[in-house]
Design brief:
There is one protein chain. With 164 residues, the chain is an alpha+beta fold. The chain has a single domain, classed as PVUII Endonuclease, subunit A (PvuII Endonuclease, Chain A), CATH 3.40.210.10. It is 39% helix and 25% strand. The protein has five helices and eight strands; from the N terminus they run H-H-E-E-E-E-H-E-E-H-E-H-E. A six-stranded mixed sheet has the order 1-2-3-5-6-8, with helices on both faces. A two-stranded antiparallel ribbon has the order 4-7. The chain is globular and about 55 Å long. It starts with a helix and ends with a strand.
């Protein structure tokens, strides 16, 4: 079997496994890493792309992963609301704040090098000022009007708990 044939076989097997478990397309966005992280962390994979990535012992949770040299977390594609009050309510109750636990993994090759867990209150404390600044700057001159913000390594290691 050639390397290409082996890849084809594994690709098809992964896709079938995901279909059988209602996990969706493993090759869409970072879905394969979400499924992998859930397995490593002992969580249940969410069946839907929108909303929670998985379920931990508390409930819905959010996953972020990177292949960079340093751990970090990027929250892209945050919808822009009409007013700051609406934006804040959306972030707190429908987007970031609705997940009690946020897990950040750094991958090295096909394996997880480290995983950190942050509580929603800390994530919000770190992100809300950045989101507000982006909101106030406006989005009319951007190709993608949605908001994107990040949490750097220094904040993840300061406020988070390393769990792997």
């Amino acid at each position: 079997m050639t390397p290409e044939q082996k890849f084809q076989k594994l690709f098809e097997e992964m896709y079938t496994l995901c279909e059988e478990n209602n996990w969706g397309d493993p090759f869409s966005y970072a879905r394969s890493r979400e499924i992998h992280m859930a397995g490593v962390l002992g969580h249940k994979v969410a069946e839907d792309y929108s909303g929670a990535d998985a379920f931990d012992e508390i409930g819905e949770c959010e996953y972020k992963s990177t292949i960079g040299k340093n751990i970090n977390a990027t929250y892209n594609g945050i919808s822009v609301q009409d007013t700051w009050e609406q934006q804040e309510e959306y972030i707190l109750n429908k987007k970031i704040g609705k997940y009690e636990n946020h897990y950040y993994a750094r991958y090295k090759g096909g394996k997880i090098a480290e995983v950190w867990k942050l509580k929603a209150e800390d994530v919000l404390k770190l992100l809300m000022p950045k989101i507000k600044q982006k909101f106030e700057e406006g989005t009319s001159n951007k190709k993608d009007p949605r908001i994107g913000v990040s949490i750097p390594m220094k904040d993840i290691t300061k406020f988070g708990e390393r769990i792997k």
